[in-house]
Amino acid sequence: MTSNTDASALNEWDVEGEERLYRTLHKYWHPVMYAADLTDQPQRVILLETLVVVVRLGNEVRAFADRCAHRGTAVSLGWVEGDCLRCPYHGWLYDADGQCIEYPSRDDVAISPAARLERFHAAEENGLIYVCLADEPRFPIPAFPEFGDPAYRVVSIPEYDWEVGAARRTENFVDFSHFAWVHDGVLASRDQPLVPDHVVTREDGELRTQIVVEEPAGTEKTSTIEGVDSAATNIPGARNYRIAIPFTVWLQQEVPGDQRFVLFMACQPLGPKRCRSFTFNARTFAHDEPDETYVKFQQKVIEQDRPIAESQRPEELPVDLREEMYVRGADQVSVEYRRWLLELVQESEGERTYD
Predict the structure, then answer these.
(1) Is 194 found in the same domain as 50?
(2) Which DSSP state fits 225?
(3) Residue 139 located in a structural domain
(4) Do 333 and 195 belong together in one domain?
(5) pLDDT score, position 350
(6) Least crowded by CB within 10 Å, which of 128, 157, 274, 341?
(7) What percent of the chain has pLDDT over 90?
(8) Same domain, residue pair 162 and 269
(9) Per-residue DSSP letters for 279-299?
(10) The model's pTM
(11) How many CB atoms lie under 10 A from the CB of residue 135?
(12) DSSP string, 70-135
């Protein structure tokens, strides 16, 4: 039995671990918005409690700290002029590198090299805008090969916010034992709660695994799969998972007739206890079916998960494996995910403080 003193010390230790993990997240690419939502005007986003302006300048995506060097005004309230960004307060004009090139109030004053916006890494990939706040991203942007592949019908799901840390949300996505209980009749059945054996491996900044499960037939999604026996109650198939560190999941589901259904979820850490998720699904079947069918199905799953995830305490993922319990085999993905996150924290800090 653990004494109150020991439990208190353990809790404090884990809080420290959560904070250490959070501090390392600026070293990774994170999604901040759907690319389709970035028009010809600057947009403010929040990443790791940092206010960022995202804008297209010269046909390229740029990201800067949303703060004018002159009086701290949000330049996201400004506008694009040619290949430059105009601050709305005093009209300072910034080029694509963030350097101010015009003081409208005086034309006889040399522009200081310090008159610039802090620039961050920005990229457009997978139908998303990504930002990294560090000098050099730790891993490349996760792969989503189905995006742009004509064999797939790709559909975006409206973004959504959860009052929980991004790591909790990511782990929820790959928590196999909750399917039968939270998604009974939708993704699994309480009559079949067993999690099959599976092997978790690391490769190229990803955790990878495969499970073979049966999904209920006759749902909004499965009823559109071609070649399914109308009398079937369940549809068997393999699910291939890739969890790209830190907060992206690619799921490829094999369905009858050598067809595929893919989910791609990328999570944005707004702060330590709040996140925003961007999701696409892609299918090789039923291209003529209304996309809204799949959007509503995914939103049903999301809303079943949300109150469960938001009830978890702490809201951040405990990276100390002693803080929560595990079931051997069933929770293997969670164990390996947390271990890798902790290793990356220790690698980032150049030290090792606990196992």
Answers:
(1) no
(2) S
(3) no
(4) yes
(5) 78
(6) 274
(7) 79
(8) yes
(9) EEEEESS-TTS-HHHHHHHHH
(10) 0.92
(11) 9
(12) TT---GGGSEEETTEEE-TTT--EE-TTSBEEE-TT-SSSPPPTT-BPPEEEEEEETTEEEEE-SS
